Amino acid sequence: MLIDPVYITCVLNGSKAYQFVRVFDVVKERLEIIKIVSRTLVEADVIVGDIVRMKAESEENARHSIFIEDFKGPSFWFLVFTEPRVTLATLLRREDMVPLPSRHVREILSQLIKAASDLHGMGIAHLDICPANVEVVDATTVIESFYRPQGGFERRKILKCSQIYLRFYGEAGMSRGGLVGMDQYRAPEIVYGEFVEGTSLRVCF
């Protein structure tokens, strides 16, 4: 589907109030992510608030900025983001890189908790922390030897650096009722309707 000047390559996910699509910008010749937000279901000040925060982040931390621009039509507001280079979801699908080394799991979880805590400190809930929203800053790999419980060593490909960036596409259209994302990445008490010791961060891994 072509929406000048971008070509929609696939629909990623969404709900009644928003939809994520991957597009190819035919002018800039690059892939991008567009969040399409309904202007009838989401109040304008919520969308504007997201845009203001993301533009401020772009100015403060240009290196890790993912927000590009926004534009709107009569019914929808379009928020344009960079396409993630490599995500944790991509790595977890690679047979030659799983399981991740325990030290990388600890380092990634620590960064996720810090990122979520920073958002909460600003009164913002991410609501969709999952491997697909965890961008790997540097996908360079190295080969290391690991001792196997059965005895002997094996050589395995791992990330050279475990630094990650939690991608956040704004709160506009996102429900605080727990209906965001897939069950395996949501808090257990939301999925099962009762308190379960642990958090969605632990369920992720």
Task: Provide key terms for this protein.
205 residues; alpha+beta; two-stranded antiparallel sheet; 5 helices
How does this model look, in words?
There is one protein chain. By secondary structure, the chain is α+β, with helices and mostly antiparallel strands. The protein folds into two domains: 1-83, Phosphorylase Kinase, domain 1, CATH 3.30.200; 84-204, Transferase(Phosphotransferase), domain 1 (Orthogonal Bundle), CATH 1.10.510. It has five helices and ten strands. It has helices at residues 44-60, 88-92, 102-121, 188-192, 200-204; strands at 2-3, 6-14, 18-25, 30-38, 67-72, 76-82, 134-136, 141-147, 153-159, 164-166. A six-stranded antiparallel beta sheet has the order 1-2-3-4-6-5, covered by helices on one side. Strands 7-10 form a two-stranded antiparallel ribbon. It has a two-stranded antiparallel sheet with strand order 8-9. Strand 3 (18-25) and strand 4 form a beta hairpin. Residues 195-205 have low confidence and may be disordered.
Largest sheet geometry: 6 strands, antiparallel
Give the mean pLDDT. 83
What is the share of helical residues?
Answer: 25-40%
Give the CA-based shape.
Answer: elongated
Q: Looking across the biggest beta sheet, what order are the strands in?
A: 1-2-3-4-6-5
Kindly report the name of the CATH homologous superfamily of the largest domain.
Transferase(Phosphotransferase) domain 1
